[in-house]
Amino acid sequence: MRRNPLVLVAHGSRDARAARSTWALARAVGAARPGARVATAFLDFEDPGLATALRAEADRGQRAATVVPLLLTAAYHGRVDVPAVIEKAGGLGLDIGLAPVLGPVAGPRSDAVALSLLVRALRRRLDEAVSGPVDGLVLAAAGTSHVPALSTVDLVADALGATVRVPCVAGYASGAGRSVSSAVGVLRDRGVTGRIAVAAYFLAPGLLYDRAVNDALDAGAVVASAPLGDAPEIAELVLRRADVA
Questions:
Q1: In sequence order, what are the residues at sequence separation of 6 or more whose Cβ sits closer than 8 angstroms to the Cβ of residue 194?
Q2: Angle, CA of 14, 53 and 4, to the nearest 5°
Q3: 33 shares its domain with 129
Q4: pTM of the entire structure?
Q5: Does 148 have pLDDT greater than 90?
Q6: Distance between CA 157 and CA 171 in Å, rounded?
Q7: Domain CATH number, residue 99
Q8: Distance CA 32, CA 135 (A)
Q9: Domain check: are 64 and 125 in the same one?
Q10: CB 128 within 8 A of CB 225
Q11: Neighbours of 113 (CB within 10 A)
């Protein structure tokens, strides 16, 4: 069966490491589904933009494509920016499916599969970074001004803490939520006196990742994991999202 090409759209960054991470994830997705065409696009700072990438698929003679937002929360970019570009691309003659963002949905109908895959990927990166046990975790995320999206990060923090069996508190590099350094303080206030590690809830490195890690280390955390990047669990999650688009 011929599958629709996948267009993975990332936020984009001035930091060249971010695009390299996105391309690595696209390669991992392609390796996980041999024969699939996997393209990348960006909302800002990097080419091609999403509209250009979709036009390229139409020019290749494709009749349909699936857009997968490489976003961990359904904040402004996922709710507004990506759908707006897809709507404007309606004249291309391309049937465009839009997958959900990668992060789970909060509430009683939360996405158990996405949550499990994200926690497994976070644990993989922690295991790569941390030597020995830790007594508390900060789940460091980029942040958003869209408060409902923050609850999904709390959902991941709770699940990660339950899996590792230590307290885990979410903290943010920007936006409306508590700062990463404040999250370290919350753990201390809850009686965590030993080693605190940072689990990076980022898909790619960049300014906000660096800010979150530096703030946490300055506040007393001892180590931080790398972004999720091309972890096999993230590649699987991308494909699962694409399949329900």
A1: 134, 135, 136
A2: 130
A3: no
A4: 0.94
A5: no
A6: 10
A7: 3.40.50.1400
A8: 35
A9: no
A10: yes
A11: 12
